[in-house]
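Example 3.
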Amino acid sequence: MRPLGRETEKSLIGSSFEAEISSLRDRLQRSEQHMAGTLMRATRLAQVISVLGNEKDLETTVERVAIEVGELFFADMALLILDSDSGMRIAGHWGIAVSDLPCEPFALPAVEAITRSRSVRIGPVEDVPLPDWLASYSPRHLAWARLLVGDRSLGLLMLARRGDEAFEDSEATELRAVAYRIAMAVENGLLHNRMKDQLAQLHRLQQLTAALAGTLELDAVGRRVADTLVSEAAVSSSIVLINHNGELVVLASAGEPHDLGIAVDGQPAALLDDRWESFPLEVANKTVGVVAVTGAPALGSERHELLLHLVSLGALALDKALLYEQSREQARHDSLTGLLGHRVFHEVLETQIAARIPFSILLFDIDDFKQINDLHGHQTGDRALCLVSDALRRGTRSGDTVFRIGGEEFCALLPGLAEEDAYSVADGIRQRVAAIVAPLQNPVTISVGVASFPAHGRNRDELLAAADAAMYSSKRGGKNRVSVAGEDRPQDLKSSRSGVSLNRLYDKDPDTVIHSVHVAILSVDLARVLKLDDRQLDDLRTAARLHDIGKLAVPDAILNKQGPLDEEELRMIKVHCVVGAELLSSWGLTGPATIVRQHHERIDGNGYPAGLRGDEISIEARIIHVADAYVAMTRDRPYRKAMKPDAAFAELLRYSGTQFDPDIVAALVALERSRPAPVSEPPSPFRAESPEEHGSHELVA
Amino acid sequence: MALAGRVPTADDVVILFASAGYDIDALYRAAAAEAAPAGVVGCTSTGGFTQAAQVPTGCVAALLPADECSFGVCHVECAENDIAGSARRAAQGARDRAGDRHPHAVLLLLANGLTSDQREVARGAYEVTTAVIPFVGGVAADDLTWARTHTFGDGQVLTNGILAVWINSARPMGVSVDHGWRPAGKPMLVTRAEGTVVFELDGTPALEAYLSEQGDALDPTDLEFFRKVMGSPVGLPNARGRYDVRQLHAYLPQGGGINFSTGISEQSILQVMSSNGEALIEGARHAAQEAVLGLAGKARLVLVFSCGSRIPLLGDRAREEVVAISSELDGAPVCGFYTFGEFARTTGSSGVHNSSVAVLAL
């Protein structure tokens, strides 16, 4: 054997070393790879748990976890599929185009074999279920893991690899743990969402309850109940029906138009077919109506319970709204005569004027009504009022409306009638009333004033003032007669000197004249309460209507001045009492003249012009003083809104005993409070004002 | 030069990598005028290279001819609150414009280097490529100052852009990535992280834990700190037993958090990595070998995206890395640039890499 040469020996030793080094490098590399894989796997579950704990909501969590698990398991594709009542849906995906995912909800019959007992399946694609819609992605190895919480399946996790690396058994074990963690997170997320939904629903129900409690309009309650059944109880359509004269009528509806086509508001319920399921609206054994729905939730389900709750809530709210409507209707009518009341009259009159269609009003006052009461008692007086009311109803057309606007004052509103025709109607009523004999010794008569829109007034106050003036004319003309505003029948205001002066004042300061009419009406009402006799009433009425006639002597600049008056201007204003009294005296109206002279005297002696105090001031003047202030405060003026009655009462009471006669203030408060309250008044955005602030330097001393 | 006498067509694309020191708007306009009617796409770099030369400062360019290929380009501004959505829009736009004339496809991505989370860019792109189409590319860079990077193409120059080039080809194309780094430190558990910031490793401030793994003392206040740590990136072991390398590029002065350009999950494992010139060159060579493995013939052009953080460790041997790559390509032309990060996904990974070499063989 030939010995190896030195170089050859060296070369062989070198090769051996190199081979050894190479082998060691390979072993090191494999060892490093093994360690890396082991490290990765050791922390994989912890990483998934970390992701599950970091995300804020279920949707984001499941989206993110599909990506993370896909990356952590070196998968090319990942799917997180969640079960729902209607089927399966994709909650997260990785490596698959949205356009390749199935329409939701979908079914995967092939994966039903992945059960609780065998909740993870791994293997080559030939051995493991593959949905058709994933075939084009050419996966080679698949892993399925069912998301289980106890025995309940929440869905599936799928991982797919397109390369050669198969899923190992150890990975199957890991996937089982990962799937369990995901299932727990999904379960928690679903519970959290459900709790959030329930809280939100509770909040909405609280809002609904509060809204229904604050809603009195029947239609609004019905609409809200119908809408809420659709939005909260998830019915397809809903109809709210109420009992009306023994028949169910549709109050409101919501939901699918094709269902509701048969249910027009107001239609009887007989049109509902067998698609509708009905729920009675019952309150304390009383059925106020019925709720009918299509697409009602399953009996016993949460939604069904909610539906029943909403029906109960709706029943309470509708019952309250019905009661409110009933009481509102009652409040609109005078309880004795059944006629509409004075507030409704004003509302209707405003509406009529706003429509700009000609009409007339008839203002009636029963003549010597106090005598009827005094001589025959209040029962007879009430009977007379009813008989007159009946005559008014019978004497007017079906489209006319009759109101009782004061103690013995009535008004009829006659749409479309001009003054001539209105006069005929009025005179017919007058004759009809005059024909009433029983049960009285003397026939009841009425004085009537006729005014037409727009001929005698273009707004409410002008028209009322004109009708009142005409009615007053009838009284002065001898009662039991009809006068038309602005005519000489029977004794036109224009023909009297006081009428001429009043017209002059109207031209100069129309608001003062209209104000005076209101003061006169209120003063007469107060006088009746305070049991003044007829003579006093006549003088009071005249004085009240003319109490500011002396303002003819006051320059316009002072009358129309906005803001406080200086000393000289106040002196000029104060003159109007004296001027007015002298004018009335010159016309032979001595009684009213005294009242007008005193109507700015205060019971504490600080009034003007004479500084009289207490009983030195006539009762009529004290009445006008109080009525004047109250009317000034409670009527709208061009420069400010009216004060609420309660605020005006407070002001009167504040000055009661100093400026005003306490008995008269008390009588006014009682009288006004006894009148039916308005059904609803929007809150005034304006600040209430005291009598002094009320531009009433001419009204309150 | 990239045109090499060829008269470009409107279907061709010229890819251009330029140093950050240029007036990029003017550069893009000039390049577009020269290449017209072909489109120009590209980004700024930490330097470029071809099979023939290193270009530390300057431009490198290559013509992507439309022979047997079709291209779709889409360049969008990246919405910081929806990075994935922006990447998805860019990828989808490019795909729609490329049409579907050829059976093989690859998505080429170039993204702003200062995008806060490059993993989101990859995830958005993956929604369009799905598991079927590979994507590859590089993150635009500057002169390692981390000040501003540009992408350009589709008629605009952007500092916060995502540029997608969808390449359809009649022939298979190859995508691969490798790095040449090995784990050198002990495994450390990420005990607190948020997005791209790792706050704690093994329960201690991350910067402190990272520095304790360095053989040589590193001073974070040293101006050269980030250049020095390029030699010590961290690696995240993956299920295949390999390491996804991540390059630290900032730290929080308070709290000791360290910042990466890619999101890192809590409870993952980090190890400080090490390498040397030889290993890095071998890593690049391996990437090139893998890229041409599935081709149906010789590559016509190879685009290379090599991380700028490899340059300090390669030192004078940077050229050897390109030579090693070229040696595996049977003479195919090479055009590449030094990046702030790489994209490459064929199977199973997130597709985001640092301190690595990504290769696209056409």
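The mean pLDDT of chain B is 93. The longest strand of chain B covers residues 69-77.
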